[in-house]
Design a protein that fits this description.
The chain is mainly α and 527 residues long. The protein has helices at 2-9, 11-16, 25-29, 34-40, 55-59, 70-93, 132-138, 145-178, 180-184, 191-199, 205-224, 234-258, 265-275, 280-310, 314-342, 361-376, 393-400, 402-411, 423-428, 438-458, 460-488; strands at 23-24, 50-51, 109-110, 123-124, 129-130, 142-143. Strand 4 (123-124) and strand 5 form a beta hairpin. It is a multi-pass membrane protein.
Length: 527
Amino acid sequence: MVFIGSFAYYVIPGFLFPSISVVSILCLVYKNSITMHQIGSGLNGLGIGSFGLDWSTVAGFLGSPLATPATAIFNIVISYILIVYVLLPLGYWTNVFNAKSFPLISANVFDSHGQPYNITRIINYDSFTVNFYQEETYSKLNITTSFALVYCANFAGLTAAIMHVALHHGKDIWKMWTNTKVFVQGRVEDVHSRLMKRNYESVPQWWFLVLLVTVFGLSLFTCLGFDKQLQLPWWGVLLASTTAFVFTLPVGVIVATTNTGVGLNVVSEYIIGLMLPGKPLANVTFKTYSSMSMWQALSLLGDLNLGHYMKIPPKSMFIVQFAGTMIAATVSYGTAWFILDTVKHICEPSKLPQGSPWTCPNDDVTYNASIIWGLVGPTRMFGKLGHYSALNFFFLIGFLLPIPFWFLAKSFPQYKWLKYIHIPLLISGGSGVPPVHSVNYIMWGFIGIFFNYFVYKRHKTWWARHTYLMSAALDAGVAFMAILIFFALQSHNISGIHWWGGNANDHCPLATCPVAHGVVIENCPIM
């Protein structure tokens, strides 16, 4: 019933009335105020007074809140409040890094006059590298306060994750590492391990080794072949694999205990940006190999763990995971090719028809990140040649911050709430803005706290029986209706009904306007 309801309902926000996905009250009341639009916009502002009546708004970016523990949800919501409601307004309205010349929240890059950065003025198209002389004569690259905070949180979040795992799980990890031989020989087993070992054969190690060598060889061929257009040398592939290997354990512990991970993408961009500045394709390629290899490893571990508890043969799990990955990669590539070939003006919001969903917020962030870390490079942005060098201190802040909270939790065990303070999540949990919108965090936090805290406390039996099934049904209903809408309507250039509610935005056109004096932006009043 939940699946049918989700499937049937999504035709309203997905086609008939997209505006209910984000309703921003302050923008509807104060239609001509930049400040009110910045405060009230659920898409491009702080989201105060905004909400959404669409499950894709709740789970589209952050995943289903019904599958995340309440303690993790509280940490992420507090992180969002600290970043978006405290640090962001403080930095923006005190004009840190000339913030008022740019939008409040945006993942785009700008020149020193507040205009969108003209990449064509600094790029060598013959080699797809940066012309540093042209960059010096044109303008330094600038980012918004919100985007700077995203990087601060990513810097601190990853080092905090390392320290958090070392403090809270270091002894267990060290014990397992020093007794690896004992575990491999099966002398330390729980009931699940004994049952699996008694009934099924384990996956031979040579399966993993053959897969590793094959995929690594194909990766080298991809980067070194095709006229080396991807710009990444052989050692870059090796370094990306090593980076993924090193961070799989600490990030995996965070994911296993909170259902939320800490991103590796920014640090990957930083590493290769220092080694290969001015090469954006090398930067994106390295980030893909390092970050996605780690997440694919964690996905495999999660599936094997699920199969372990459900008593599914390990070999079957391995084969299905491998086959599923190959099928998913092929389908994803084919789908992307098909959409890019058939959807006119995809990823160009200003040219798309009213109600079109093809705005590509994640791809926009990836593109601008390739400019920041790959084309211009971290040295000219976050190093001695850039004006964001102070952000590097967040690596140290993140590394040190878990220590006092761990000490307090150990010293005062009577205060049980101290052990629920999760510093990596408090730092990076709310750092998704952008591309995640304020309304996504608001609705995700509201639904998650309601079900996984209040409903869980009062109706545990109902919660245990229905919550995860309901989550899967809601996700599936939206997904199937979205596919139906695309093939039946949008693929035939029928994007929606042309009326006020058919616009897939929150009716806050001034939220992206700067407030600095003299900055001229199209469709924005001059201050």
